[in-house]
């Protein structure tokens, strides 16, 4: 008989009972083994468990219940269907057999038709059990492979984070008496935010805050590219600078820088990412600051007298629309003034109430910070205050970054 059941073990101390059962089983095409007691049956099962066991309940030495319990206790990847043969029919005795690990019962004397029906039922159960075991094996192997792949990706992402962190080698730097401080907190291993600063010469600095669309690896690759376009080390690659008289580098106007970056992204076919940006240059002698805002959140001007003002006119993100012009605006900073550029990871952070922080919420966070702190400490305090009011359910859903310029005069 083909199917899940091929080998059957008959266990009975009665030679006549075994002969009757074996004759029927062999007629149906099964490969039949015999044992006259539980001990002998266990020896057979330890070497190669059969598909089906027919065991008498009442036997001298190890009875059917004890044999069933010991057989189940040995543990094996292959499941065997166990039928107890008994004259017992009381519910508590049946429960005892089930508790020992029996799958079914047959009352003696055994009817040939009923035995065939019970074996067929057992075969269906074994087939389902073995199909399930095979699926579980495949699932386990797949999960193991996925774990290995995940571990490899995780290792790569950790290295990618180190590379991304190298794009921001200094989190705070003084230029004369003024200071630029940076904050970069990806919501995952790597992120799509970028902050930075550069100085081509005395009294001239440029700084920026960028937020690439999307999240994860694609956005991080774009930030790496932008880090090269606005390099603080290789001025010849920095689109924010131009060489003059083959002697020194000068800062390009912010509106020109935005247009150049926009043209480069539009020219690259296959790139769907775009980014928002706030980019500033400042003359430290006069305090004149020029800024272009390209779809980035409105920079926050924090005056020395305690007043605060959101500046900028919005603008269009870079890499979204071809041949678009960008306009810049100019402000004069006084000694003690600060300018904060930040990503929407701040203003769109989800609070415990379910609402977003928004601009007014950002102002409230800033009021909680000690204004006498250094720039880096101020940004760290600002970020910590944000984490204290985030929704526990959602946590940090976007990268958080900021650039703080503190002007202290020439």
From TrEMBL:
One of its GO terms (biological process) is phosphorelay signal transduction system. Gene3D superfamilies: 3.40.50.2300, PPM-type phosphatase domain (3.60.40.10). PROSITE patterns: RESPONSE_REGULATORY. Transmembrane segments: none annotated. Residues 7-123 form the Response regulatory domain. GO terms for molecular function: phosphatase activity. The modification 4-aspartylphosphate is found at residue 56. InterPro entries: Bact_Sigma-Reg, CheY-like_superfamily, PPM-type-like_dom_sf, PPM-type_phosphatase-like_dom, Sig_transdc_resp-reg_receiver. Keywords: Hydrolase, Phosphoprotein. This is Chemotaxis protein CheY.
């Amino acid at each position: 008989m083909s199917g899940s059941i091929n080998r059957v073990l008959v266990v009975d101390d009665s030679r006549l009972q075994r002969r009757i059962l074996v004759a029927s089983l062999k007629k149906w095409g099964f490969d039949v083994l015999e044992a006259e007691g539980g001990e002998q049956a266990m020896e057979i099962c330890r070497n190669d468990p059969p598909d089906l066991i027919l065991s008498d309940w009442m036997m001298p030495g190890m009875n059917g219940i004890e044999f069933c319990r010991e057989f189940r206790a040995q543990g094996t990847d292959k499941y065997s269907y166990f039928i107890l043969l008994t004259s017992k029919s009381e519910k508590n005795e049946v429960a005892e057999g089930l508790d020992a690990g029996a799958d079914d019962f047959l009352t003696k004397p055994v009817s040939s038709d009923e035995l065939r029906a019970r074996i067929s039922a057992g075969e269906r159960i074994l087939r389902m059990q073995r199909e399930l075991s095979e699926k579980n094996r495949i699932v386990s192997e797949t999960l193991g492979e996925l774990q290995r792949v995940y571990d490899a990706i995780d290792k790569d992402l950790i290295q990618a984070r180190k590379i991304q962190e190298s794009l921001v080698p200094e989190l705070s730097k003084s230029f004369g008496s003024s200071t630029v401080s940076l904050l970069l907190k990806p919501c995952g291993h790597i992120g799509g935010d970028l902050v930075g600063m550069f100085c081509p010469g005395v009294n001239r600095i440029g700084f920026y805050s960028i937020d690439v669309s999307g999240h994860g690896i694609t956005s991080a690759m774009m930030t790496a590219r932008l880090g090269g376009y606005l390099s603080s080390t290789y001025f010849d690659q920095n689109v924010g600078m131009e060489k003059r008289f083959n002697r020194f580098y000068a800062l390009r106007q912010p509106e020109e820088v935005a247009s150049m970056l926009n043209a480069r992204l539009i020219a690259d076919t296959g790139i769907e990412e775009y980014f928002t940006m706030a980019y500033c240059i400042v003359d430290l002698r006069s305090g004149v600051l020029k800024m272009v805002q390209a779809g980035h959140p409105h920079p926050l001007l924090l005056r020395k007298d305690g007043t605060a003002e959101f500046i900028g006119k919005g603008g269009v993100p870079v890499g979204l629309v071809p041949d678009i012009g960008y306009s810049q605006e100019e402000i004069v900073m006084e000694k003690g003034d600060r300018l904060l550029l930040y990503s929407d990871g701040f203003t769109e952070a989800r609070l415990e109430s379910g609402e977003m922080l928004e601009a007014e919420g950002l102002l409230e966070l800033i009021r909680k910070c000690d204004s006498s702190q250094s720039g880096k400490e101020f940004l760290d305090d600002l970020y910590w205050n944000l984490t204290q009011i985030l929704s526990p359910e959602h946590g940090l859903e976007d990268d958080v970054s900021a650039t703080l310029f503190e002007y202290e005069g020439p």
